[in-house]
């Protein structure tokens, strides 16, 4: 029986297929875009992209196609046309939800991860090729009740009304400004290309209240490149303060803020 697959995310990356392929096959390059920094990241990369991965390559008409089949039927496919050798189309597909007892019908955690990671790969290769990454992250912040929402308090009020490609300007609780461009938005997450000392990429992911009562939660990952230790320390201080000061007064919740 043929396994039914569904598209989770697709992005265009303005570099050659060979370059993108290397970012899927070399663990040191995978580290520049996949997930976020944590003590088990290298082991996770090896488990997903090395130990359990199966490669395939083909040419169909004027297209070169490379595919990487991962554990649990996740599949990354790269396509590049002869007439556009410096543009690669990445698609992530996964098995159908049909018959999966664990899917709640609202949020698939693995889907949400691939959506974020595909855009992080696009950003890494488009903006910071050949640079290593350091991330800051925050997980499990309460989203807050209506009228006292975390993202509003963080200065991101109205961001859901900004069109993709539009400019976003936030004033953090400490009064500092944050400016960026909205790169993508889905029902449960968004990605911002932030402008500052250097270009960085912010992913904000929401878990609905039905899954994480009573108000839902917010996770965020900031990918930075080319920064020295002193600058990273300054950004980390501002990052931690931004989220801690933004937690709605009505419910502090439990949060994990990391710069590992």
> What is the strand tally?
12
The number of domains: 2
What is the H/E order? Answer: EHHHEEEEHEHEEEEEHE
Largest β sheet strand count, sense and barrel closure:
7 strands, antiparallel
| Approximate shape | globular
CATH superfamily annotation of the largest domain: START domain
Question: Mean pLDDT, as a whole number?
Answer: 91
The tally of helices reads 6
CATH class of the largest domain: Alpha Beta
Protein name: Activator of HSP90 ATPase
Organism: Cellulomonas humilata
Characterization of this structure:
This protein is of the alpha+beta class and 260 residues long. It has two domains: 5-127, Alpha-D-Glucose-1,6-Bisphosphate, Chain A, domain 4; 133-258, Alpha-D-Glucose-1,6-Bisphosphate, Chain A, domain 4 (2-Layer Sandwich), CATH 3.30.530.20. β4 (75-81) and β5 form a beta hairpin. The longest helix is centred in the middle third of the chain and has 19 residues, at 109-127. The model is unreliable at 252-256 (pLDDT under 50). The chain has helices at residues 17-25, 27-30, 41-51, 109-127, 150-156, 229-246, and strands spanning 5-13, 54-60, 63-69, 75-81, 88-95, 133-142, 167-171, 177-186, 189-195, 200-207, 217-225, 256-258. It is 26% helix and 35% strand. α5 (150-156) packs across α6.
Quick gist of this model?
The chain has helices at residues 17-25, 27-30, 41-51, 109-127, 150-156, 229-246; strands spanning 5-13, 54-60, 63-69, 75-81, 88-95, 133-142, 167-171, 177-186, 189-195, 200-207, 217-225, 256-258. With 260 residues, it is α+β, with helices and mostly antiparallel strands.
